[in-house]
Task: inverse folding
């Protein structure tokens, strides 16, 4: 797969050399609160990059690694769709880079892979992420109650959002 170019970001297939920078982003309190992780985030990021069911792309802005966006495919013909997830360095939040990364990957998944539907599932209380995804065309489908366990050990709601190919904001 070649690099994907957005308005301000470049998405390129993640490589082992990206692990230290990606682990540093995962270690920031804002990202860690959502993505959590154990004592060795570098090992966890490296394992993510090796997962054959998930495609990881490093998000670059101004020649700097600022995050990771990943996608997976549900290939069962009657349910075919792709799912997206990402984390972004808090130092670049609020600049539209998350929306640009999501839009760039969504365009690739629709145009190059032929997906007619994409999904994403932010925490229901993550208003910034939800706004980011809505700007790319995702719409709320519904709240998934007690969807994920938080760092505090309690269950938290998630918001299922989807995007049909015709709704992609290009």
Result:
């Amino acid at each position: 797969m070649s690099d994907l170019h957005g308005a301000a970001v470049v998405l390129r297939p993640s490589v082992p050399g990206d692990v230290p920078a990606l682990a540093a982003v995962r270690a920031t309190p804002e990202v860690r609160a959502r993505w959590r992780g154990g004592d060795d985030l570098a090992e966890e990021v490296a394992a993510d990059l090796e997962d054959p069911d998930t495609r990881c792309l490093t998000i670059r802005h101004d020649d700097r690694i600022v995050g990771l966006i990943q996608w997976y495919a549900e290939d069962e013909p009657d349910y075919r769709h792709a799912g997206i997830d990402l984390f972004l360095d808090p130092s670049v939040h609020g600049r539209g880079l998350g929306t640009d990364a999501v839009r760039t990957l969504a365009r690739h998944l629709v145009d190059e892979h032929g997906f007619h539907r994409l999904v994403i599932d932010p925490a229901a209380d993550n208003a910034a992420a939800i706004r980011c995804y809505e700007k790319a065309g995702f719409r709320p489908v519904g709240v998934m109650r007690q969807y994920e366990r938080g760092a505090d050990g309690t269950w938290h709601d998630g918001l299922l959002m989807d995007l049909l190919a015709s709704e992609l904001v290009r």
In short: The CA atoms of residues 125 and 157 lie 8 Å apart.
